[in-house]
Every structure is written in C-alpha cells, then in structure tokens.
Write a structure and sequence with these properties.
Length: about 100
C-alpha cells in the first residue's frame, strides 16, 4: 500500500512520528504475541507512526501484553487516528 502524505497531514502527524519499533504484523488487529484482538478499538491503541522497510506504518501497543507491532498505514487509518485524537479517546495521547 503506497501512501503519499500531503503537507497538512505531515504537520498533523509530526508529534506522533517515532522510530520504528516492534514487529510487522500481518494480522493487523490481532497481537502477534498474545493473540489479543483489538478490532473494535484499534485506533485508541496506536502509539505513533514510522517509516519501515514495508512503507509508511502505524505502530500499536497491545493493551494486554504491551507488545508493540506495526502494519501498513493508509489514508483511512490516519483519518481514524485523527478522529480519536480529536475526541481524546486514544489512551496514549489523552489530554
Ligand atoms: Zn498482546
């Protein structure tokens, strides 16, 4: 999945950019370590974004075992992340 970030999006994401950590997760919504599924509230557990060998990715921390994992990031992912930031429902960026 190739994503092109415009300047507005880049500015918004700046505070949330971080070095790549964790493992690539094909399952996306399911923790590769403990199997915990966060399908229903995935975007409240994103801890940041990074550039990985696979492309631009979102990084998530498992609320159960605290394993960090990442997966491809698309425009929709950024929109959903933004929604939760604006609504103060991402547990890692509560104001
Ligand atoms: Zn886990």
């Amino acid at each position: 999945m190739k994503i092109t970030l415009n300047n507005t999006t880049k500015d918004f994401l700046k505070p949330y950019m971080m070095p790549l950590v964790g493992t690539y997760n094909v399952g996306v919504f399911e923790c590769p370590h403990c199997g915990k599924s966060i399908l229903g509230n995935f975007y409240t557990h994103i801890i940041g974004f990074a550039y990985a060998p696979v492309g631009f990715v979102k990084i998530t921390e498992c609320p159960n075992c605290f394993e960090k994992y990442y997966s491809h990031c698309g425009d929709n992912d950024i929109d959903m992340f933004k929604y939760h930031i604006e609504n103060n429902t991402n547990i890692h960026f509560k104001k």
